[in-house]
TrEMBL record:
HAMAP family: BipA
CDD domains: BipA_III, BipA_TypA_C, BipA_TypA_II, TypA_BipA
Organism whose genome encodes this protein: Wenxinia saemankumensis
Chemical reaction(s) catalysed: GTP + H2O = GDP + phosphate + H(+)
SUPFAM superfamilies reported for this sequence: EF-G C-terminal domain-like, P-loop containing nucleoside triphosphate hydrolases, Translation proteins
Descriptive protein name: Large ribosomal subunit assembly factor BipA
Record's function text: A 50S ribosomal subunit assembly protein with GTPase activity, required for 50S subunit assembly at low temperatures, may also play a role in translation. Binds GTP and analogs. Binds the 70S ribosome between the 30S and 50S subunits, in a similar position as ribosome-bound EF-G; it contacts a number of ribosomal proteins, both rRNAs and the A-site tRNA.
């Protein structure tokens, strides 16, 4: 059977996973009466809740005698480690672009990786049936994007289709019949080249491992594309590291191939196909699985280095151990090492005391997803403020810079530009009208300046602005950048918060807690209206007497507290603060719970 291996790449929320749903339906993957779910490729709970793709996943469909292996890639740059590995398995890419928004920053990130590998793109202009769609403008922007990314003549001569993934049609012309996705299937089989590996069937078996997972019955399993040869169940293979060192020799216990949404056991793996192999105990991502006669590993694609680091520690607050079962540093370390093994974009380092671990990665969203997964597994953690990773070049200190693309209503452009270029020390690159009363702003801003900015940005734009960011490069260190302007309200007592006390504290600032929430000394319960920290008593009840007086029995009416998500809490805290994460709660607290130590640290900082 002919094989085509393609990856679908797009910006967050441009309809990538919805399009794959329709491809599965129209290729006959489902039975007529089979129960299906929306966004079937988003199998992870967090992916379904947030509507984003986090893990790269494979599926396979058949079209007129050709098997098409489709890889659904994450759209967010924080999960770029998935993208960089997965693109080495495919021979072509389908670039999905929203006809109204055009190519966005996450599109640029994945597309640059695909073009650098020499892959020829197919552009699909999605959502052309929306009232604000401008497919011709979006197509021109795609060409400009490819040219800016250094595409060659073969890649610039790309075919394009007009489509609506939700409605399930794609056509070569904008006013086409709009019936089904057959035009997309035919274009993929015609435009994407068959795997070059098909000509290597007579050579010894070689495969580069690109994703790692585990199965309760099969143990450790590795997925990749067969580069050469054939493999049968029961054959003996060896694993080579990137440097050519032998890791282990093992017997293949099972071979799985993607068929529809699931995987099925097969007897023989052919060159060019994407398969999963079980039987190894030590081999991991970027290792070469090969015949014992092979000594040279397959070159692995280099992974971009991490840009931020976060310290994971044990939860040592007075409320520790009430919600979660996994609280020891040893258990936390084992879980982080397991994550680093399968996620090549994350690096783990031990701190000198051994009670905390420095986790380096791509961005706040990637860290937030890791922490969210751990808290759902029963872990309790304390998380520090993200720190940008700096590096030295020719004796000069360099820091990472991100390209920020913002779509905002015209009336808010002034405050956004002022914050980015003045307070956050960014450089304005482009500002142009985006139609319908909106302005598009492109700026290069130091990563340090963007930590904690998103919440401020939503406040400044009344929740209407859209901010996207992507790693751009390195620049000379730009000096100190102002952090959070407001101080915090800190509890000075242990116990349960009282509504009357919170009511009296409302004039001091915004609250983060509800009445009857447990609090402890050093816990942050709100944001101060001024720039200094203030210790307050949220347990102070109303003094009662046996004398009734007019006007003293008014009802307590509280303003609803600010409920922060995990990412918002991590971005909000200052250097001397921590986020306490448990399966049931996200709390903020001072790093030093002892009041005398807090005051000493405050004096030292001032």
């Amino acid at each position: 059977m002919d094989i085509r291996n393609i990856a679908i790449i797009a910006h967050v929320d441009h309809g990538k996973t919805t399009l794959v749903d329709e491809l599965l339906k129209q290729s006959g993957t489902y039975r007529e009466n089979q129960q299906t779910t929306e966004r079937a490729m988003d199998s992870n709970d967090i992916e379904r809740e947030r509507g984003i793709t986090i893990l790269a996943k494979c599926t396979s469909v058949e079209w007129k005698g050709t098997r098409v292996n489709i890889v659904d890639t994450p759209g967010h740059a924080d999960f770029g480690g998935e993208v960089e590995r997965i693109l080495s398995m495919v021979d072509g890419v389908v670039l999905l672009v929203d006809a109204a928004e055009g190519p966005m920053p996450q599109t640029k990130f994945v597309t640059s990786k695909a073009l650098a590998l020499g892959l020829r793109p197919i552009v699909v202009l999605n959502k052309v049936d929306k009232p604000d769609a401008e497919p011709d403008r979006a197509l021109d922007e795609c060409f400009d994007l490819f040219a800016n990314l250094g595409a060659d003549d073969r890649q610039l001569d790309f075919p394009h289709l007009y489509a609506s993934g939700r409605s399930g049609w794609a056509d070569e012309e904008l006013d086409g019949p709009r019936k089904d996705l057959s035009a997309l299937f035919d274009l993929v089989t015609r435009h994407v080249e068959p795997p070059k590996q098909l000509t290597n069937a007579d050579q010894p078996f070689r495969m580069l491992a690109t994703t790692l997972s585990s199965d309760p019955f099969m143990g450790r399993i590795l997925t990749g594309r067969v580069e050469s040869g054939r493999l049968s169940t029961g054959d003996t293979l060896k694993a080579l590291s990137r440097k050519g060192e032998r890791i282990e020799q093992f017997r293949v216990s099972k071979i799985l191939a993607f068929r529809g949404l699931g995987q099925q056991p097969i007897d023989v793996a052919e060159a060019g196909d994407i398969v999963t192999i079980a039987g190894m105990t030590k081999a991991t991502v970027a290792d070469t699985l090969c015949d014992p006669s092979v000594d040279i590993p397959i070159p692995a694609q280099p992974i971009d280095p991490p840009t931020i680091s976060v310290t994971f520690g044990i939860n040592d607050s007075p409320l520790a151990g009430r919600d979660g079962k996994k609280v020891q540093s040893r258990v936390i370390r084992e879980r982080l090492m397991k994550e680093a093994e399968s996620n090549v974009a994350i690096k783990i380092e031990d701190t000198p005391g051994g009670e905390a671990f420095v986790v380096s990665g791509r961005g706040e969203l990637q860290m937030g997803v890791l922490i969210e997964n751990m808290r759902r597994e029963g872990f309790e953690l304390s998380i520090s403020r993200p720190q940008v990773i700096l590096r030295e070049e020719n004796g000069q200190r360099m820091e990472p810079v991100e390209e920020v693309t913002i779509d905002v209503d015209d009336e808010f452009t002034g405050v956004v530009v002022e914050k980015l270029t003045g307070v956050r020390k960014g450089d304005l690159i482009e500002m142009k009208a985006a139609g319908q009363g909106k302005t598009r702003i492109v700026a290069h801003v130091p990563s340090r300046g963007l930590i904690g900015y998103h919440g401020e940005f939503l406040t400044d734009t009344r929740g209407t602005g859209v901010l996207n960011r992507i790693f751009h490069g390195w620049t000379a260190h730009k000096g100190p950048i102002q952090g959070r302007r407001q101080g915090v309200l800190i509890s000075m007592e242990n116990g349960t918060a009282v509504a009357y006390a919170l009511w009296n504290l409302e004039e001091r600032g915004k609250m983060f807690i509800n009445p009857q929430d447990p609090v402890y000394e050093g816990m942050i319960i709100g944001e101060h209206s001024r720039d200094n920290d203030l210790e307050v008593n949220p347990l102070k009840g109303k003094k009662l007497t046996n004398v009734r007086a007019s006007g003293t029995d008014e009802a307590v009416r509280l303003t609803p507290p600010v409920q922060m998500s995990l990412e918002q809490a991590i971005a909000y805290i200052d250097d001397d603060e921590l986020v306490e994460v448990t399966p049931n709660a996200v709390r903020l607290r001072k790093r030093f719970l002892d009041p005398h130590e807090r005051k000493r640290q405050a004096r030292a900082a001032s």
